[in-house]
Here is the input.
Amino acid sequence: MTEEVTEVDQGANGSSTGKIRITKDQRKPVIADVARLAGVSVPTVSRVLTGNIPVSEERRQRVLAAIEELQFRPSSLARALKSGARKMIAILTGSTEYYGYTRTIAGVERAAQEAGYSVVISAVKSADPEDAKAALGPALEQQVAGALVIDFDPTGAQLLKYLPEEIPAVAASGFSQGQPGYPYAFIDEYAAGLEVTRHLLGLGHRTVHHLGLFPLAQFSGRYQGWLDALKEAGIEPPPVLPATRSARSGYEQGLVIAEDKSITAVFCSNDGLAHAALKALHERGVRVPVDVSLIGWDNQPFTEFTLPALSTVEPGFGDVGARAFDLLLKKMSGDQNIRDSIAAPTLVVRESTAAPPAGGRA
Here is the structure.
């Protein structure tokens, strides 16, 4: 905020015997100033501007009078909303390739279409600030009414830092915490990580290994749930079997698991890694689930048809996308008290998990 200062000479009878200091606020009025002067809420002002939701004539006149007195000029966003031109939202993501991202995006698209919105999707190459800004440019040029960020990785988190403040924005995530200042639709990965690990321990396994996207896995709820479930059982967590998003890394770790006869239960951080490990174990003559139990994550369609059918976790990606869009609708309406949305995934038990072999692996 800047300040314009004027000094005026003024005495008791209009003579120049004293000075008073006059300051003028040069900050442009915002919608909150209009609401304060009109004695209404910010959402009420938004409704007057957009015309989408009826407002009583008395309140409408108060808002219009406040707009005139403050010489408030709605932003291009507000003008577009009023004309009905902005019926598009931006989906910003670090990937459009991997299963969880694509299913979440599909969930957003379905919910948006049902509400009469179209979407523009922009993917960013990396967490580098320049890449983030480059991804935002094309989306924001579309004059979107709001933005929804798929915050599944550091790249997604970076996008939130560069969004203009005037663009209503929310995020979807599986991490335990989100970026401050944004409403989130969460997948409760932590609860699922606990459940998976407890399930395998309940079958009688002495410990559970984690085949994960390391080091990213360290920041995920599923990893933390696995870790805490072992600790609560008094078990020292074994080292993570590190992998990348490449199925090849899952296959290579499957070969390691085949050679290490102390491993009888493995929680994989996605179905692709689990499937690749399953192939490696089969090639080495290690039976699943007789010798080793495997659980994946994602509930991809193929998991029902592997041999054996793969136990996995259904995260509810489509659901988190729809829940995130609902939050965005509230944000775009001017709601200032939006609570985060959180839902737990579902453990899907199929044929790839069982009690450990009596006496250990042969």
